[in-house]
Design a protein that fits this description.
GO terms for molecular function: RNA binding; rRNA pseudouridine synthase activity. This is Pseudouridine synthase. This protein is α+β, with helices and mostly antiparallel strands. The protein contains 7 helices and 13 strands.
Length: about 240
């Protein structure tokens, strides 16, 4: 890969900015000053430093975000803030996108990556990747609801959902539940509860496949996946 392309891809400025860095002698490849922007480097084996700092090149980026409410799961929107707007510039340059979507008012686990193949696998209906949500429900959730969800419920448009696994954490006028589903229809969790005459007042995704939301991430915060987390998703 050309040295100017590599540095530009990593967000060290435009090709023009990068040319200036090279001209100024700020870039070393294997301890040798490189001024030619066309110089080819192997990101796997060559050591590239910029102003004495070693540069790590990576093709793909994998980020776990705790999505806050009020933010759109999209790469751009003319009216609302998107999850991409929450990323640092050094991560935005990789052009990641959200894998699947969380409703605007829903919080929790969102995976962002520029790895299209992995995203496609995780979203493929054939894969049945389970997604688990924590929700607060207006109304008493009962054993009858557990049975109904186990069979699948009919949504407002006549669609019969695949079975969902409902766990009641606390039952009362307000109930706390966890629901695991393997599909991602529009507003699915809310519509499943509507189908049994109840209303979701708070919704948060806590896991997707083997990936579990990191409790230490505040709303709007994100971090790169660990190698173990990434391997878990790839093996799914």
């Amino acid at each position: 890969m050309r040295i100017d392309k590599m540095l530009a891809n990593l967000g060290y400025g435009s090709r023009k900015d990068v040319k200036k860095l090279l001209k100024d002698g700020a870039v070393l490849v294997n301890d040798e000053k490189i001024k030619d922007p066309k110089h080819h480097v192997n990101p796997e084996t060559d050591t590239v430093t910029l102003n004495g700092e070693v540069i790590e090149y990576k093709e793909f980026i994998y980020l776990m975000m705790n999505k806050p409410p009020g933010v759109i799961s999209a790469t751009e929107d003319s009216q609302d803030q998107t999850v991409i707007d929450l990323l640092e510039m050094e991560d935005q340059v990789f052009e990641p996108f959200p894998v699947g979507r969380l409703d605007k008012d829903t919080e929790g686990l969102l995976l962002l990556t520029n790895d299209g193949q992995l995203a496609h696998r995780l979203l493929s209906p054939k894969k049945h990747v389970p997604k688990t949500y924590f929700a607060v429900i207006d109304g008493e959730v009962t054993a009858g609801d557990i049975e109904a969800f186990k069979k699948g419920v009919t949504l407002d448009d006549g669609y019969l959902t695949k079975p969902g696994e409902l766990v009641i954490l606390k039952s009362g006028l307000r109930s706390d539940i966890e629901l695991t589903i393997t599909e991602g229809k529009f507003h699915q969790v809310k519509r499943m509860f509507q189908a049994v005459g109840k209303r979701v007042v708070y919704l948060k995704r806590i896991s997707m496949g083997s990936l579990v939301l990191d409790d230490s991430l505040d709303l709007g915060e994100y971090r790169e996946l660990t190698e173990e987390e990434l391997e878990g998703l790839i093996e799914h």
